[in-house]
Amino acid sequence: MDDPVAALIAKCAAQDRAAFRALYRDTSAKLMGVLLRMLKERAEAEDALQEVYTRVWLRAGRYDPAKGRGMTWLIAVARNLAIDRLRARPEARSDDGLDRVQDNAPRAETRLVAQGEARRMADCFATLDPDRAEAVRGAYLNGLSYADLAARHAVPLNTMRTWLRRSLLKLKECLEA
Amino acid sequence: MTDAPFTPREEDEALAAEYVLGVLNLAQRAEAEARLKRDPAFAALVAEWEDRLSGLNEGFAETPAPNLLPQIEARLFPKPVRRRRGGVLGWLGGATVAAVLALASIATFAPPRPELVATLATADNRLAYAVTHFGETLQVTRVAGVPAVAGQVHELWIIAPDAAPVSLGLLEDRPLLVTYPTPPAGYTFAVTVEPEGGAPNGVATGPVILTATVGGA
Description:
The complex is a heterodimer.
Chain A: H1 4-13, H2 17-39, H3 42-59, H4 70-88, H5 91-96, H6 98-104, H7 108-111, H8 116-126, H9 130-142, H10 146-153, H11 157-176
Helix pairs in contact in A: 1-2, 2-3, 2-4, 3-4, 9-11, 10-11
Chain B: H1 8-21, H2 26-38, H3 40-52, H4 69-76, H5 86-91, H6 94-107, E1 115-121, E2 128-134, E3 137-144, E4 152-159, E5 166-171, E6 176-179, E7 188-195, E8 208-213
Antiparallel strand pairs in B: 1-2, 2-3, 3-6, 4-5, 4-7, 7-8
Helix pairs in contact in B: 1-3, 2-3
C-alpha cells in the first residue's frame, strides 16, 4: 500500500536524519492538532510535540507497517503521551477543561468523511446508543477518563465502565462483520 | 450483545480497547503498560485496537506547528562533549600524575558550589524538580507541586544516549542525594510514576511525566 509516512519512519529507523526532518515537515501539523485538542494548552502541546518526535526517532525501529499505517502509529505515540500527561495531572485539572471541550470541539461525526474506513466507522458508531457512542468519541479525541465520563454523563463510574466495555466489544463486532 | 459476564478473551479485548481509548486511571494504565511489555498477545490486541479506532483520527484537525526541529535535534543529537583533561593525564608519568592530583585537590579544597544541571518541569510549572550537582553528589529537589499520590512514587532515571534508563532513586518528601559524576551533556533525566517502593526489577513501568536533557534547550 502506498504509505509515504511509513517509508519515512522506516528511514528514521535506519538513522536517516533528512527523513526525520521530512517526517516532521509532513506530519507535525496533524500531531500538533492531536496534542492541542487533548492537552488544551498551546505551551504544553508544543512541549509534548518535542517529546513525541523524540520518541518517534528512538522507537522508529519498532514500527511495523503490517500492523497499521504510518500516520496511525504516529498518532498513537502522540495520544499515548497526551493521555499519560492528562492522567498525571491533579484530579481537578481534567474537569475544568470539560466545558471548553463541549463548546469548542467539533463533533467527530461531522468530520468523518463519508467514504471508506471512516464511513464504516460512522456506520458502526450509529449502531451504538448515542450516549455511549459520544463517550467513546469523547475519550478518544479529548482524552476523557472514566472519571470524567462518569461525571459528564452523571452515572456511577462502574456503570460507565460496563457501558463502555460492552460498547467497545459491540463496535469491534460491527467493524469486523 | 448480552449481559453475561465477560469471557477471559473478552476481558482482554476490553482492556486493550480501554488502554487505547485512554480511559483508565493512572494506576490501571501503568498496569496495562507493564502487561504490554511482557505479553505479546496482549500487545497484538492493543495494536489491533489502534488500527481499528484509527477512523476517529479524522476528528483531529491539523494545526500548524512551529518549527521545533532545532530543539528536538539538540535533544537527540547532542554535540560531542569537549574532551576533559583525562587525555593530558594519559601521557604523563605516574609520579607526575600523583603530584598533579595532589595540587588539584589543594586547588579544589574550597567547598564546591552546587551547579544547576537540569530542571524537570511540566509546561505550566505545577510540578518541577531541580537537579543540582556539587562535588560528586547529585541533588534533586522538588521546587513545585506535590509528591505522587498514596501508593505511588515518582522515580528518577538517567538515560545515556542510546542506552536504557538507569534508576537514580525515588523522589519523596526529602531531596534525593545520589553519588554521581558530573552528568555529561546529552544525558537525559526522566521522572516516571511507579508503584510504591519503586519500579519492580529496576525497569520503568509507569508513564514518563517529566524529562530534561543536560545542556538541552
